[in-house]
Amino acid sequence: MGPGRTTLVPPPGAASPVRHPEAPAPGTLLGPHYDQCFGCGEGQPHGLHLQARAGEGVSITAEFTVQPAHQGAPGLAHGGVLASALDETLGSLNWLLRVIAVTGRLETDFVRPVPVGATLHLEARCMGIDGRKIYASAVGRIDRPDGPVAVRADAVFIEVKLDHFTRNGRPEEIKAAMADPDQIKVARAFEVNP
Ligand SMILES: CCCCCCCCCCCC(=O)SCCNC(=O)CCNC(=O)[C@H](O)C(C)(C)COP(=O)(O)OP(=O)(O)OC[C@H]1O[C@@H](n2cnc3c(N)ncnc32)[C@H](O)[C@@H]1OP(=O)(O)O
Fold this sequence. Notes:
Keywords: Apoptosis, Cell membrane, Cell projection, Cytoplasm, Fatty acid metabolism, Hydrolase, Lipid metabolism, Membrane, Transit peptide
Subcellular location: Cell projection, Ruffle membrane; Cytoplasm; Membrane
Strand content: 25-35%
Number of helices: 5
CATH class of the domain at 51-184: Alpha Beta
Low-confidence stretches: none
Shape: globular
Domain Thioesterase: 75-134
CATH topology of the domain at 51-184: Thiol Ester Dehydrase, Chain A
Helix content: 10-25%
Radius of gyration: 16 Å
Bound molecules: dodecyl-COA
Region (Disordered): 1-27
Membrane topology: Peripheral membrane protein
Largest sheet: 6 strands, antiparallel
């Protein structure tokens, strides 16, 4: 089965996800993985500024408040922005697995519209691991952790090495990131694997 047709359900032989022994404790605010990230970076004026926390097991909770810059229709969040919020929350599972992985496939259900000013309460969980493939699902609820479901996603992330970024990123941003001590710290956290 090639990419694009890949099922988003872990296959029968998939391993259960294991929380890395040095993963941040449940409740810990994770902080941005890159200052210029559209999802979590503080240096992006119109970014999502999504704040993710470690959950129990291999799970993440996150919050994102829809800004006027995120509109698709008048007063409503753009679907692609909501997919970005799900993608970012799912990507934050990397911190708990201590594995670098990028989104291979992301399928989103838009269940109800999300108004500007609403806070999306997101939760992501790793469902299984099969070789380099990490299966994960997420849900986003309106205004409260137990609020009405607005969006859901299922995804496959693919494990990569750090050189995925250095080989493929535009050289000027790569150079700047490698000169930034905070960025080096993030990269180091992922270099140590059991
Ligand atoms: C500093 C820290 C920062 C931490 C950085 C954290 C960033 C988080 C940001 C949020 C997340 C993002 O948006 S990440 C950005 C969006 N995503 C991307 O840009 C990814 C672009 N795609 C790629 O670079 C590539 O296609 C890869 C790396 C995904 C796969 O290429 P590859 O490495 O050559 O892998 P390949 O051998 O083909 O496949 C390996 C296995 O994965 C499966 N596979 C491959 N592609 C897919 C796919 N699209 N959907 C499903 N499954 C797939 C294959 O079937 C195979 O399964 P089997 O045969 O083994 O069974």
